[in-house]
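=== Structural record ===
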Amino acid sequence: MKKTAIALVSATLAGSALAAPESYTVDPRHTWPVFEVSHFGFSTQRGRFNKSSGKITLDRAAKSGTVDLVIDTTSIDMGLDKWDEHLKSDEFFDVAKYPTMTFKSTKLVFDGDKVVGAEGNFTLLGVTKPVKLTVSGFRCGPNPIAKKDACGGDVSTTIKRSEFGMKKFVPNVGDDVKILVPVEAFKD
């Protein structure tokens, strides 16, 4: 009887160790946040941020985890230096005062074993608001080039920039901003 109890406790502890949350570090070479906004109704303009960092924890057995993503707003890239400088000004991203924007999750949403969404707080220009992210194409597995385990997917959401204090040229330059982030992260 005593041996059976010890075996049961050992098996439970071994299973718990396997189900422990896993930690991942965002790969900045494959995580390039992009945004889209209407430009006077004539076209959809796109820009990206060349620097991002973050951590992800994932407990697939418990269907939980966290995401902390930091986007360096000083790395904005519109393809033209003058346009970059204009968007870095206090009329838009005000990078001198707010060099980063962040997302911190409060909940991951699962469909079976796959992450399909995240809920949390997005901070831009010092204003924090709740947002819901959609995650598509999520998968984890060995990265064949890095020879390390990785997870990744495509994240998207839409925000109203005026709600964060970025009101210049609204409504001519759209208030709705679509954010798209391809995310890849390596297991620590």
Notes: Confidence is low (pLDDT under 50) at residues 1-17. The longest strand covers residues 127-143. The chain is about 15% helix and 55% strand. The two ends are 40 Å apart (CA to CA).
